[in-house]
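Morning!

As promised:
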Amino acid sequence: MKKLANTGNKLLPWALFIVLTSFWQLVSETDEFIGRLLPSPVDIITTFFRELPVIIPHGVVTLNEALTGFGASIVLALLLAVMMDAFEPLYKALYPLILVSQTVPLIALAPLFLLWFGFGQLPKILIVMLMCFFPVLVSLLDGFKSVDSDLLNLMRSMGAGRVAIFRIVKFPGAMMSFFSGVRIAATYSIMGAVISEWVGGSRGLGVYMIKVKNSFAYDKMFAAILLVVALSMAMFKLTDVVQNMAMPWYRLQQRNTGE
Amino acid sequence: MNTFRSNTLLDVKNIRKSFGDIPVLDGVNIELRRNEFVSLLGVSGSGKSTLFNIISGLLEPDEGKIFIEGADYTGKTGRVSYMYQKDLLLPWKKIIDNVSLPLVVRGESKKAAREKVAGYFKTFGLEGFEYKYPFQLSGGMRQRAALLRTWLFSRDIMLLDEPFGSLDAITKFKMQEWLTNVLSSIEASVLLITHDIEEAVFLSDRIYIMSDRPATIKEEIKINLARPRSRDIVTTGEFNAYKKHIYGLLL
């Protein structure tokens, strides 16, 4: 019975998806003019596969920027979070500044980065880093702070020093929270790269999108969007796979209680 | 100022502690002898846990000293072990690694620690659970693992802070019986915090009755019930006489 309900839950979004895209298909087919502004799902899929040889090299560039920026932001966030947790004054000084920095519109910074760092991949990677860094850092810091104080006392009563407590209790204890941050960052990463390519550059999905928009080829625009969605989903999945490898106990627990 | 009885292991001398303007402990004196089971009985919020934090060295008293085997251990951690109501097992470590924790903290390798602790799983009724994760165990089993970890950390002085407080009544019953059995096969001196009169009488050699805040020791009661004790003794006249006496003191 439970299994049946589970399959139902998995089918439900697909059913809704099919209803919505069918409706979209109908609307697009009613009129040629509408069809040009809003290409039908069938048109988009056809264009997607026809354009694939053109889109893929752009996609590789974008994916490369996204992965580099994403990876670098995780390393940076890990280092900074560990330092901020170890030195309370650093935490107090830095946390509000980092919070405020998140209110700066990155879309406005992107053209400036282009001026400062050129038209290559560097400014794009930096934008991705700025987008991904924050959720990872905050989730890690929250993870460190949320460790049960009785557990810390227990470790202290055993005579464990700060480094041992961090290594044995705090860091593994923050993994759950860390991965929720990483998952958010993973979805941001592709988008960040596309947005930064949008403002300037010679290659990448963002560049491709600007080009096809200027030539009013909206079906190609949607084909590119499709790839952005697929890449973002892949990044999300990748995070899940890494999390399952890093936290085998959690996967077991999910399997036992989630059935 | 040395201990007056040679077999006194832990000597808590005239401990006073206030938090701000609120006096919590007002001159508490307690002794624990080797292989003795002693309970601290008092209502919730009477400062029992504060006293444990002081004995374990996590807190400094305002006045008074903690002596262990005659040496001053006031404010020093790492000597006595402390077990809480929560099992505090690390969810990402298998039971054997959770239990090994005190050895790993002392600097032993994971492998060496595993080898050392494996032999005790049988005594503690945890055989077969070595490579399970905590979430795969029942509440009672998790407390057994927590007790084994506590004992491996300091075999001679264990502080148990309402260790069965979060278990249901039936499991609690079973765990108390289990604890008396385990303690008869290992050597350990235990100081137990509880507000459960029956638990205190059933398990203890001696009971200290604590007053309301600010806490002092109201009375020390020797429990002269033969060991090993089984569940049957709780309905005997002797047992009930102790209970009645303690009720009179607390109410």
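Chain A is about 85% helix and 0% strand.

Hope this helps with the figure draft.
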